[in-house]
Design brief:
Number of domains: 6
CATH topology of the largest domain: Rossmann fold
CATH architecture of the largest domain: 3-Layer(aba) Sandwich
Structural class: alpha/beta
Radius of gyration: 29 Å
Low-confidence stretches: 107-112, 179-185
Strand order of the largest sheet: 11-12-10-13-14-9-15
Largest sheet: 7 strands, parallel
Shape: globular
Bound molecules: adenosine-5'-diphosphate, zinc ion
Number of helices: 22
Number of strands: 31
Helix content: 25-40%
Distance between the termini: 50 Å
């Protein structure tokens, strides 16, 4: 027997299979999907067996034996291998990187975390406990503190472990593992609602496809507060009734406590939660529950897409426009694209949900006909959308107000404080001051390792937001020794300080990655706010989505221009999405709500359309711009990023690739269809001491782009046999910094 082996090293040059002979001693221990050890050159390395066959004809010269079997497996299925091959050819990544993303994580054999114990109360308990007082105590403790482990419960009840074991043996305590339990601290029962007429119009076609087991992609465009979650829940229930599983993807688990709560409430132990903050043991437990079929609803971030569900009937991608669905390391896949591929193979239904769909998705649904559009245009119970007021900060300056807040915003905040209602203030930048410079010589304080200005934090330190380099704030300019140093650019910390100065009696919270770095701190801040123990919450985009807090009647956007002028063709789209999302936090109850957007560009269409809750108007303008400028969805982009420690080498590599790519395009006569831009320094020219150059190409079809890029990379590897330059290939990039 011969085995085709995929080397377990994610290198482009090794991205093919190699043949090995299966020695007699190992026959029967190796199958397709086994993890094996092989000798490669002079090394022993790991590889995956992708196929086995009986050789016909003479053996190739120099064929070697497999050295050993590490895991008979199979550690992946045929389907998973096919998905990896698809991912590799779509995103131009090594097959083995794709495979590692898709297959079972190889984790410790068993979870170190003991299961939690939950009490049951069958009739006749008193009799049982009559002669066992310590068991009674333990059982009562379990009732008041459910979910403790065996040892914890024994300690809490001050009884011996044998008393606990006796209860377990009698079936009065049941052991259950629940990952992510800490996320459900404030679990509140949520009952299913009858769908509103509009929700039903959206649900019916989904149900129809589920029933017919037909693949379809729906774009559910429902405004904020329209009850998309309820549509998901009904769809999930329908998929379960048909004996299939459901996957629900969310941008970030910690940011969606309410949705998690709803699903847990409706589907209980059927829900498995998968996200990056689980411990290995927790993750393994969840995978097992899914694999065994005891959890049929999988909720999680991007990678939950690869959970071992047997027969997914439904894949929901909530907030489908979120950039976090794109993985920013190899394989640089987009969860939406991968979900579509999986669903096609499984005859599953995909529901992409958003109040502000990505321009690409809305285009696919409304013009290209690839998706079916479902619209919910009203909030549940006809609650009105908050009124949005755009505040022109240029007028404020003319009036002599150079402060962070306009008069209008300040008086609205004051008004809420008086009425005991809550306010959210949004600014998409953390830290105190984001730009420190010398007023004498103009020197800007930059990170010594990155091409990025340092941010001043309230603890008196300057921090690089790219590499975390930290240094004390200088008293004198490092270049001219002047003490005249200016701090400008506003972050959330400055907002917090200003608000506390202006409203000394207000209870203020701040939520950004500085205040939420410890596990559980995010939840704590949210709880404090949700329970009405604070008046004002200041935050970055962390607070923009998912929150449904009735007492919030005012949302203030301190500076809408931050995203608007980013060097990215999606800047307008991101601004519109962010503003709509933040605005959606206001007015979720009968108290109504109001939103104020402070900007220096009140006439920009992203801001005017957001202020009128008019996605359609935004889309129509944006799609025109994209068409004129030849950006997606009219073209597909590919970005090559080169990094290295020697600037000249990085530049050379980028220019060489540019030449190769141009040659290929010319020689194949594709000048009308493929455009190659010059290699240039990336917008952030250096990160962590590595210089960065990039080059962007675009084509009418993604297939064409992939084919050309593949050919180009092969030629490049050929001309640059051993290079110290790292090349990153990004198909359909979300980020261009
Ligand atoms: P979205 O995700 O679209 O912004 P949510 O799913 O958060 O909206 O729903 C908004 C609110 O409406 C929630 O409090 C939810 O419980 C409630 N809700 C949803 N559907 C219904 C319904 N059919 N009847 C009554 N209330 C509903
Ligand atoms: Zn100076
Ligand atoms: Zn840095």
């Amino acid at each position: 027997m011969h085995a085709e082996v995929l080397i377990n090293l994610p290198a482009r040059r090794l991205d093919r299979t190699f043949s090995y002979r299966v020695p007699i001693a190992l026959e029967g221990q190796v199958t397709t999907g086994s993890l094996v050890q092989i000798s490669f050159g002079r090394q022993k390395i790991e590889g995956y067996v992708t196929s086995l066959r009986n050789p016909d004809g003479p053996e190739p010269a120099g064929i070697k034996d497999l050295s050993a079997v590490i895991d008979r497996g199979p550690v992946f299925t045929h389907e998973q291998l096919n998905l990896a091959l698809w991912m590799s050819s779509y995103y131009l990544c090594p097959t083995v990187s794709a495979l590692q993303t898709i297959i079972w994580p190889r984790l410790a054999r068993s979870s170190r975390q003991a299961p939690g114990l939950w009490p049951l109360s069958p009739p006749g308990l008193e009799v049982v406990f009559k002669r066992a007082p310590s068991q009674k105590t333990a059982w009562e403790t379990a009732l008041s503190q459910p979910g403790l482990t065996r040892l914890e419960l024994a300690a809490a009840a001050k009884v011996s472990v044998s008393a606990i074991d006796a209860l377990t043996a009698k079936g009065l305590l049941i052991a259950q593992k629940r990952a992510g339990k800490h996320l459900l601290n404030n679990f509140v029962e949520s009952r299913p609602f009858d769908l509103t007429a509009q929700q039903k119009t959206a649900f019916d076609p989904i149900f129809d496809r589920l029933k017919k087991k037909e693949h379809e992609v729906f774009l559910l465009n429902g405004i904020t507060g329209s009850g998309k979650t309820e549509v998901y829940c009904h769809s999930v229930a329908a998929a379960l009734r048909m004996g299939r599983q459901a996957l629900i993807l969310v941008p970030e688990i910690a940011l969606t406590p309410q949705m998690l709560n709803t699903f847990h409430s409706r589907f209980g132990e059927e829900v498995a939660i998968l996200h990056s903050r689980l411990s290995d043991g927790e993750r393994r437990d969840e995978w097992l529950r899914i694999k065994e079929g005891s959890a049929n609803v999988v909720m999680g971030t991007r990678s939950a897409l690869f959970a071992p569900v047997q027969n997914p009937g439904l894949i929901v991608i909530d907030e489908e426009h979120e950039p976090s669905y794109k993985q920013e390391e190899s394989p640089r896949y987009h969860a939406r694209t991968a979900a579509l591929e999986i669903a096609k193979n499984k005859q599953a239904v995909v529901v992409l949900g958003s109040a502000t769909p990505s321009v690409e998705s809305f285009f696919s649904a409304s013009f290209a006909g690839a998706y079916q559009l479902l619209t919910i245009s009203e909030r549940v119970e006809k609650r009105s959308l908050p009124k949005i007021q755009v505040v022109d900060m240029r007028e404020e300056i003319k009036k002599g107000n150079q402060e962070l807040f306009s008069q209008a915003l300040l008086s609205s905040i004051k008004d809420r404080l008086g009425k005991n209602e809550q306010t959210i203030l949004f600014l998409n930048r953390r830290g105190f001051s984001t730009f420190i410079s010398c007023r004498e010589c103009g020197q800007v304080m930059k990170c010594p390792h990155c091409d990025i200005s340092l941010t001043y934090h309230i603890n008196g330190r300057l921090v690089c937001h790219y590499c975390n380099y930290t240094v004390g704030a200088p008293r004198f300019c490092p270049s001219c020794r002047s003490s005249y140093i200016s701090y400008s650019g506003t972050g959330t910390q400055k907002i917090e300080l200003e608000i506390k100065r202006l409203f000394p009696d207000a209870r203020v919270l701040r939520m950004d990655s500085d205040t939420t770095s410890r596990k559980g701190s995010h939840q704590k801040i949210l709880d404090t706010f949700c329970q009405g123990n604070a008046d004002i919450m200041i935050g970055t985009q962390m607070i923009a989505k998912g929150l449904d807090i009735p007492a919030v009647t005012l949302v203030g956007v301190v500076n809408a221009d931050l995203t608007l002028y980013m060097p990215d063709f999606r800047a307008a789209e991101r601004t519109f999405q962010l503003l709509t999302q933040v605005a959606g936090r206001a007015g979720r109850s009968d108290l109504g709500g109001e939103v104020m957007i402070q900007t220096h560009s009140p006439e920009h269409f992203a801001i005017t359309s957001a202020s009128e809750h008019d996605y359609q108007a935004f889309f129509e303008q944006e799609i025109k711009n994209r068409e004129i400028l030849n950006y997606p969805p009219f073209t597909s982009l590919c970005r090559f990023l080169f990094t290295g420690t020697v600037h000249m080498e990085v530049e050379n590599a980028a220019k060489t690739l540019y030449n190769i790519l141009s040659e290929i395009v010319n020689s194949e006569g594709l000048n009308n269809q493929v455009q190659v831009f010059n290699a240039v320094p990336a917008p952030v020219n250096r990160i962590k001491n590595r210089y960065r150059w990039h080059l962007i190409s675009r084509a009418l079809s993604v297939k064409q782009l992939q084919d050309i890029s593949r050919a180009c990379l092969n030629e490049f590897d050929h001309r640059y046999p051993s290079s110290k330059i790292r090349i990153i290939v990004d198909i359909e990039p979300q980020n261009m910094f």
